[in-house]
Amino acid sequence: MTARILEGKEFSARIKDEAREAVEQLRADGVIPGLTVIIVGENPASQVYVRNKHKTCEELGIRSEVVALPEDATKDQLLETIDRLNADQNVHGILVQLPLPTAIKAHEQEILERIDPLKDVDGFHPFNVGKLVTGSPTLVPCTPAGCIKMLDLAGIEIDGKRAVIIGRSNIVGKPMLHLLMARHATVTVCHSHTKPLGDVTREADILVAAMGKPKFVTAEMVKPGAVIVDVGINRIAPKKLVGDVDFESVKEIAGAITPVPGGVGLLTVAMLMQNVVRAARLQLGR
Ligand code: GUN
Question: Which of 20, 65, 79, 87 is the most exposed place for a label (fewest CB within 10 A)?
Fold first, then answer.
């Protein structure tokens, strides 16, 4: 029997509907929620993501602005831009698209920490990371939050389950650990030094692949019936995207699986819209 395919489109439509309603409510109260995305340089993947974010904002009635800085922008230019947006009452959400160009990559943390935590719709500021770890989340990173929301909407139980995450990034792996733990899963985080990896992944009722290696998770690494959440987006040819999971073989053994493209990527943008609404409410004190 092949796995249930968890289509991102269906779930993202539901999340966006929720956000749209919330935007309408804010607008009725005279507040137009606004997002500003800062992109530095010309990374083609980032340009696609930023365009998607802008388009989705427009679809939902969120004011959207993109600030494009040149590849050779300095750290100070970026910090000044953030300061200006922090002070702008019409901007409720600020997002610095990652990765940053090599020349300023080393300053990534300083740059992310400059964003007002109440406008930090990525949830990357240490204030928001701390809130998540201590169990009083405010703005939560969009991709892991989208994965949890999808499991909920799909009726997949988390409480009491064994969850295994492959990848320990600040964007996905680490926040995912805290979100799953808060929902009473027993969670293991694996990474490139985990040996033997298959022994751990085969324990998973819920397996989250987020390490950025194309088709790395194969059927032998998966427990029959497991729920597979594939967060990877790897371009292996000009027009060919694949996930971190070998979809064709794993779908024959898994209970449910997210495809790439068309899986959790769509949820990330939808959750960002919810975070913009949440940020606007936080700033208005409601
Ligand atoms: N680049 C890839 N994923 C993300 C994300 O979630 N936020 C930002 N800011 N940049 C990214």
Answer: 87
| Pocket lining: 171 vs ligand 1, CB cutoff 6 Å | yes
| Atom of ligand 1 at shortest range from CA of 268 | 6
Which of 116, 119, 120, 122 is labelled catalytic?
Answer: 122
95 lines ligand 1 (CB under 6 A): yes
| d(CA 36, ligand 1 centre) in Å | 14
Q: What is the identity of the amino acid at 88?
A: D
Q: Is 143 in the pocket of ligand 1 (CB under 6 A)?
A: yes
What residue type is 4 in one-letter code? Answer: R
Residue 94 in tokens: 């600020």
Asked if residue 275 has its Cβ within 6 Å of ligand 1, the reply is no
Q: ∠ CA(145), CA(118), CA(51), 5° rounding?
A: 60
Tell me the CA–centroid distance for residue 220 and ligand 1, in Å.
31
241 C-alpha vs ligand 1 centroid, how far in Å?
17
- Using CA atoms, how far residue 95 sits from 103, 124, 131, 196, 203, in Å, is 19, 10, 19, 37, 36
Question: What does each of the 286 residues of the chain score in pLDDT, given as a tens digit?
Answer: 799 999 999 999 999 999 999 999 999 999 999 999 999 999 999 999 999 999 999 999 999 999 999 999 999 999 999 999 999 999 999 999 999 999 999 999 999 999 999 999 999 999 999 999 999 989 999 999 999 999 999 999 999 999 999 999 999 999 999 999 999 999 999 999 999 999 999 999 999 999 999 999 999 999 999 999 999 999 999 999 999 999 999 999 999 999 999 999 999 999 999 999 999 999 998 7
Which ranges of 135-242 does DSSP label H, i.e. alpha helix? 142-153, 173-182, 197-201
